[in-house]
């Protein structure tokens, strides 16, 4: 059995960016129009990074290359954080020795399906105000009666869920759509219907995680459950096709089609755990829950009011965005504002689950 040393504890509780900031605070890193970064400080920070993230390189040449990348990222983050007009902070992290292309390959994975692109083009030609983004999914409140019919009585680990649970949840929250609440913000996490944050690792499976998280929340809402049952992104990665490509990316529509074809059933994370790679599709020895019939609808591109209404009234949503900007690689806190962030469906690259919105009083910024 290994012993935990004081250095291990220090590495564990100290973030890389906090370690970097300690040099800024003591004056060892200076910024007076030009960033002063001497080799001694750089080597200390580099050694901390390698120890914290257990980096081992195949050759001296590779380490030199990674160190140059690390230095460039370090300077970029420091300069960004020293700009007073910024509404957000960046922070170095485990990706700080990667190229931007390597990071994108690891942490994106959205591939807009051909049918979604066709829908966008057709809508765009008919009405510019009614463009569809294939990245917006939600379950309509006015389909509650249909969802109740499909729910009937479900049994999961000896617990019964009844028709009136779904209705009681929405009756309890009927004032969700009032204007004051929408302007002040809304967060599904405080209703205990959002699962934990998970990492896709080195696999382009963001679409699978986003879809699994949406269905987790909608199922918790539908069954009025106090516990979120984690669902399996790995099943989506391994078993869905026709527009999904395992660890090489996918989209929400092929995933919905896959789940619909198998009767609205999806495996639990506990019975079909994530493996950070594509594997053969498992059909035996898994525990699946019945989602029922899932209705989805798309929000017009750029209509944040409709987005807020849909989120508040219906539940967490599948969204996609252009994650190609470097600041996504290092975002740490605050309200991220990127002027060049585009919403053309051809360049959307990352899928996430939207669970709320709010207003930062200190920054005077909505988010």
UniProtKB/TrEMBL annotation:
Residues 182-367 form the Peptidase C1A papain C-terminal domain. CDD domains: Peptidase_C1A. GO terms for biological process: proteolysis. InterPro entries: Papain-like_cys_pep_sf (IPR038765), Pept_his_AS (IPR025660), Peptidase_C1A (IPR013128), Peptidase_C1A_C (IPR000668), Peptidase_C1A_papain-like (IPR039417), Prot_inhib_I29 (IPR013201). GO terms for molecular function: cysteine-type peptidase activity. SUPFAM superfamilies: Cysteine proteinases. SMART domains: Inhibitor_I29 (SM00848), Pept_C1 (SM00645). Residues 46-103 form the Cathepsin propeptide inhibitor domain. Belongs to the peptidase C1 family. This is Uncharacterized protein. It comes from Rotaria sordida.
